Amino acid sequence: MTDLFDTPANLRAIPVEELTVEQAQAELAALSKEIAHHDRLYHQMDKPEISDADYDALVRRNNAIEARYPELRRADSPSLRVGAAPAAGFRKVRHAVPMLSLGNAFAEEDAHEFVARIRRFLGLPDDAPIEFVAEPKIDGLSLSLRYEDGRLVQAATRGDGTEGEDVTANVRTIRDVPQQLPAPYPAVLEVRGEVYMNRDDFLAMNRAYAEKGEPVFANPRNAAAGSLRQKDAKITASRPLCFFGYALGEVSEPIADTQWGIRERLRGWGFHLNRPSNLCDGAEALLTHYRKIGEQRSALPFDIDGVVYKVNSLELQQRLGFVSRAPRWAIAHKFPAEQAQTRLKGITIQVGRTGALTPVAELEDITVGGVVVSRATLHNEDEIARKDIRIGDLVIVQRAGDVIPQIVGVVESQRPANTEPYRFPDHCPVCGSLAVREPDEAVRRCTGGLICGAQAKERLRHFVSRNAFDIEGLGEKTIEEFWDDGLIRSPVDIFTLEKRVEEGAIAILGRPGWKEKSVENLFSAINQRRAGIDLHRFVFALGIRHIGEVTAKSLARHYVSLDSLLTGMERAIADMPGEAWLDLHALNGLGPVKADALLAWFSDPENLPKVDFYATQDALRLEKIIKLLGIKKVDARAAQALAERYGTLDAWKRAMIAAAGAQPGPAWNELVAIPDVGEVAAEELAGFFRERHNLDIIQGFREAGVTVLDAERPKAAANSPVAGKTVVFTGTLETMSRTEAKTRAEALGAKVAGSVSAKTDYLIAGADAGSKATKARDLGVTILTEQEWQALIAG
Ligand code: IVH
């Protein structure tokens, strides 16, 4: 960690009291940078590199130095900022009342000192009673909800405390957040609280991602933060987010005179409150509550990292006020991180269904926070290298987010002699095939595909899993045994089992645990599925990367039958875009709308001479030329992106002509526009259905008599919020193409019209909406932004 920054590592070891002025100055500079770096990782990328305890230690060191040398406090000191500046991509929101942070207490003395400080500040005697509210500190991320006349009008993240991100559309999809408050309410009310995820929901969500071969989140906090910061509210809607209210921002009139009273008002409006919470009189009562919550911690459905103590009286809160970034009237008493040290006995590599190689730490058994841990995730090879984790090391194990145990680091001083840096295998430990990494991926994957036993077993396991074929009597263990003994090597073999037994080619009866009745039951379960399997279950069972249950259902709904799905795939593959087109579409700063406008322009033969005209003006830079050409929708940002990518006029022209010739055809566009599909999943589908051996497997099912049932034709989604409504899209849409917008609206039972009339229910106005918006306004038609539309259909 330190080598990233210019802190001389030896400074950190000097007690604060012994630092010289120069040393203190140098270290404050380095700490400011280092803490800002971790803030960015934590708040913007949801990818912390160090544990909360390590982070707190840095902040404490910074504050201790500042306390000794107040004159050295820097303008950019971490003690003066909260969190990190907003991430790019969301509209910024200025908080009417700043969103502050809390000071931390780590030891019991700190709690006593907190109470004593308050008494001193208020000029009260040492034994004066002061009432506090103690409530759990939720490990999530804070949010400010603004209600005007009882309606939710805006939701913003904390950001840097002064400015946050507008996440209204996403927050509207969270069930715990009331959209409308029951009267009475003040005209303006800002409710602050925490967005979080329950541990079980988090685990289930991660399991679903792992099944799809997609990356999982490290802990519920990262999952909550990542889910809230989605560009697409539909994704947020699909994530199990919860919300607790615990404080206020701007309010147009007082709503209570105590903190406890605020909680009661919030409850009355339908907010959930964080519990267990208590009213406590003085430090000892606070500590008793702290210990009690500490004991209940692992039994709570969500992760907490401490207890927040708040002065109950709002009048006293007012008098106490703030010091730099935190209130004097509140403090967060943190729990010690649940960590322990043990030896790393070895590293095993697991191979998943999609061939991903996952390293697992094999540990000497150790108890962490009351749970015996013998294995921990090591995430991926970069993680092992970054922490230089070696077999034989004494490692620090942490139950982060109280779920998946993690290795936070090694105790280097305790490293045995002759250890070596861990070398991640470049071959699959199961089948021996080469294991490779795509340039933009953290995982290494086995290339063995069908010949890899591990992948084959995982695929079979997936095939019979609950949301796929769900064959009773064919659980994980049976699959494993049947595979090892060669009874079942591919999913089709399941459907030929009975026949092979009848022919005497194999025997199941007589194997350990198999009796006449159980064999009979197994065959009957298999035959039941053979007689009819839903198309979406069939598609999901194939185990194609990125095709989870939801996407499989969408595909089934769209194509209805297996035959038309297969034809659709064949056509889509023929209509796939070429490299040149994909390259252009992948350019940052362009987007599909501008890219299409650009190619439309290049497809017009009259325009080429205009490009050639500039070929003689070599002094002009490409960016300038593109701007001068004045191509519709191709703005300054697009011109810059294009110029950076293609460099010269000639290279650009050739690339655009190539891209125009490599545009996708209608079947591909149709596929990409199916809800939940998109470019990435479409490419995986194409990859799968292009392979002869995969088509052979599908043919194999048919020959084995498996009947794939047609999906029901969508009943114009009668219960969707837009069923039966007439909608019109206008202007430039940002998050979807027109085709996708239209397809989705129709799938939800809406009628999409081309022009606005009195019959129009909604006009969805993208950027640069023109006359249609004016007409809609005149006719009193409801106008929605793209985000509001997304939220409407998500709800
Ligand atoms: S009160 C003026 N109460 O912890 C301070 N914050 O480390 C208002 N947090 O930004 C915050 N649980 O995101 C408060 N019960 C609770 C909390 C809580 C979690 C978060 C919040 C805050 C951060 C400070």
Heterogens: 2-(butylsulfanyl)adenosine
Ends distance = 44 Å
Largest sheet: 5 strands, mixed
Determine the mean pLDDT.
Answer: 87
Examine the coordinates and then state which fold CATH places here, giving the name of the CATH topology of the largest domain: D-amino Acid Aminotransferase, Chain A, domain 1
Shape estimate: globular
CATH homologous superfamily placement of the largest domain: DNA ligase/mRNA capping enzyme
Q: Counting H and I runs of at least 4 residues, what is the number of helices?
A: 32
Question: Class of the largest domain in CATH?
Answer: Alpha Beta
Proper CATH architecture of the largest domain: 2-Layer Sandwich
Over all CA atoms, what is the radius of gyration? Answer: 30 Å
Proportion in β-strands = 15-25%
Assembly level: single chain
Q: Would you kindly provide a written description of the structure presented here, covering whatever features stand out?
A:
It is a single chain. The protein is α+β, with helices and mostly antiparallel strands and about 800 residues long. The protein folds into six domains: about 10-80, Helix Hairpins, CATH 1.10.287; about 90-335, DNA ligase/mRNA capping enzyme (D-amino Acid Aminotransferase, Chain A, domain 1); about 465-530, Orthogonal Bundle (DNA polymerase, domain 1); about 535-575 and about 670-710, DNA polymerase, domain 1, CATH 1.10.150.20; about 580-665, no CATH class; about 715-795, Rossmann fold, CATH 3.40.50. It has a five-stranded mixed β-sheet. The protein has a five-stranded antiparallel β-sheet with strand order 16-15-14-17-18. Strand 14 (about 340-350) and strand 15 (about 355-370) form a beta hairpin. Helix 22 (about 590-605) packs across helix 26. 2-(butylsulfanyl)adenosine binds next to strand 3, strand 8 and strand 13.
